[in-house]
Amino acid sequence: MKLPVLMLMPLVTCILPPLLIVLLGPAVLQVMETGLGSGNL
After folding, report:
1. Which DSSP state fits 40?
2. Does the pTM of the predicted model rise above 0.85?
3. Sign of dihedral through CA atoms 13, 19, 22, 25?
4. How many other C-beta atoms are found inside a 10 Å radius of the C-beta of residue 6?
5. pLDDT tens digit string along 1-41?
């Protein structure tokens, strides 16, 4: 039985998305505040 491999898939699908949201959330908000780099440097 490849139990660690079977447990890895739910782990990745349940933990990775919230982790990406936490890590990329501030960056996305900052980009939205600056106006997607529309020349206002």
Report:
1. -
2. no
3. negative
4. 10
5. 688 888 888 888 999 999 999 999 998 888 888 877 665 55
